[in-house]
């Protein structure tokens, strides 16, 4: 294998996520095997996916081996059971040395367990929706756009209110908290741009900043109003 | 010794009772409140009056594990009815809570074998049953 861009991908779980992923990936020219252990669900999905789905419990090693895990480029575990997803990914990564794994987190409270077992990346629909919610509600405060725990960096976004203490100030005159950097401004009518020292901040601007983890509160009060410095 | 047993079915509850009888401190965690009744089979007093502890909760919830006393456990037994659950919580007990002795019951011999190699202490009742059956059959056939 390894010719062209087509990869061999095993998907554990033929629920809505697994089935649709399989469709998309097959459309993009990848070779896909879905593994599903519910007989009825298997029967339904098999009518469309045919030889691209196998019946069995993906946390059984022989089922993974039958699906050809040793030559898989990627294993995606999207069953409705977090323990199953953790086990499948752990075995894929550590026993069969699969290059890439992706796990679905059903219960966001299980995230620390995925991290403890070294399973990443993982995707949590609940977290994604929560983030969207945060993004839709600027009053909520500071929005996390990106966390890079390994690099110890975060990117956040914050809307400057009418009473923001930095509104009307030149970027060059700001003394940003150490460990943070203003990287972009989104302004009504102008879109996003990278500020220069002469850029003057306005109320209503959305500012993007990169920062060391742990500086959120400090940054929140820095960009906030004089009245709520505690955040 | 303080023993925490997660999963209080036939196996877990029997081990719990035996350990308690032998004078150890025993705490059980199960997601089903009804599992408590199993602990009292053949006991003349209630489980609590006999000195046992019982917590209702899911094994993956840290609050439940903490409430059941994992932080001071000398031994941890994962005996729920799910192999994958047992494998995951055994690793949590070992890696996050540093419990000195951790044992997982794994019914699937293949998973048990691999995780044993990875340093997870496992008991595989299926493997034991297979060996006993084979031995029995061979002996019976040899003597007839």
Question: Would you give an account of this structure?
Answer:
- The complex is a heterodimer of chains A (231) and B (144).
- In chain A, helix 5 (111-116) links the parallel strand 5 and strand 6.
- In chain A, the strands form 2 sheets. In chain A, strands 3-2-1-4-5-6 form a 6-stranded parallel sheet, sandwiched between helices. A 5-stranded antiparallel sheet of chain A has the order 7-8-11-9-10.
- Chain A is built from 7 helices and 11 strands.
- Chain A is 29% helix and 25% strand.
- Chain A has 231 residues and is an alpha/beta fold.
- Chain A starts with 7 loop residues before the first strand and ends in an 8-residue tail after the last helix.
- The model of chain A has no long low-confidence stretch (mean pLDDT 87).
- Chain B has 144 residues and is an alpha/beta fold.
- Chain B has a 6-stranded parallel sheet with strand order 3-2-1-4-5-6, with helices on both faces.
- In chain B, strand 2 (25-30), helix 2 and strand 3 (53-56) form a beta-alpha-beta unit.
- Chain B is globular, with a radius of gyration of 17 Å.
- The A-B interface holds A 59-62, 81-84, 86-87, 91, 94-95, 107, 109-110, 112-113, 116-117 and B 60-62, 82-85, 87-88, 91-92, 95-96, 108, 110-111, 114, 118.
């Amino acid at each position: 294998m390894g010719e062209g861009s087509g990869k061999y991908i095993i998907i554990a779980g033929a629920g809505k996520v697994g089935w649709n992923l399989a469709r998309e990936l097959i459309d993009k020219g990848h070779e896909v095997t879905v593994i599903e252990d519910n007989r009825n669900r298997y029967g339904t999905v098999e009518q469309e996916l045919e030889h691209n789905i196998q019946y069995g419990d993906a946390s059984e090693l022989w089922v993974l081996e039958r699906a050809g895990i040793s030559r898989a480029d990627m294993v995606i575990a999207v069953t409705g059971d977090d323990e199953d997803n953790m086990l499948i990914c752990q075995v894929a990564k550590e026993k069969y040395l699969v290059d890439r794994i992706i796990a679905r987190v059903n219960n966001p409270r299980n995230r620390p367990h995925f991290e403890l077992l070294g399973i990443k990346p993982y995707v949590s629909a609940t977290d994604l929706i929560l983030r969207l919610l945060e993004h839709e509600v600027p009053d909520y405060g500071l929005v996390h756009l990106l966390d890079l725990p390994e690099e110890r960096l975060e990117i956040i976004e914050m809307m400057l209110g009418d009473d923001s203490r930095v509104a009307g100030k030149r970027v060059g005159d700001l003394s940003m908290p150490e460990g943070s950097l203003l990287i972009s401004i989104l302004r009504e009518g102008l879109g996003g741009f990278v500020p220069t020292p002469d850029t003057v901040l306005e109320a209503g601007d959305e500012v993007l900043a990169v920062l060391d983890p742990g500086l959120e509160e400090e940054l929140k009060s820095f960009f906030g109003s004089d009245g709520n410095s505690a955040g | 010794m303080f023993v925490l047993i997660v999963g209080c079915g036939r196996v877990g509850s029997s081990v719990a009772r035996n350990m308690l009888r032998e004078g150890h401190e025993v705490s059980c965690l199960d997601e089903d409140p009804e599992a408590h009744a199993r602990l009292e089979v053949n006991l003349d007093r209630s489980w609590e009056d006999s000195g046992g502890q019982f917590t209702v909760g899911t094994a993956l919830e840290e609050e439940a594990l903490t409430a059941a006393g994992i932080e001071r456990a000398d031994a941890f037994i994962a005996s729920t009815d799910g192999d994958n659950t047992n494998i995951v919580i055994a690793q949590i007990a070992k890696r996050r809570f540093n419990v000195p002795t951790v044992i997982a019951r794994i019914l699937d011999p293949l998973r048990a074998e691999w995780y044993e190699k990875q340093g997870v202490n496992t008991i595989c009742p299926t493997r034991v049953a297979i060996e006993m059956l084979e031995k029995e059959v061979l002996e019976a056939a040899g003597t007839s």
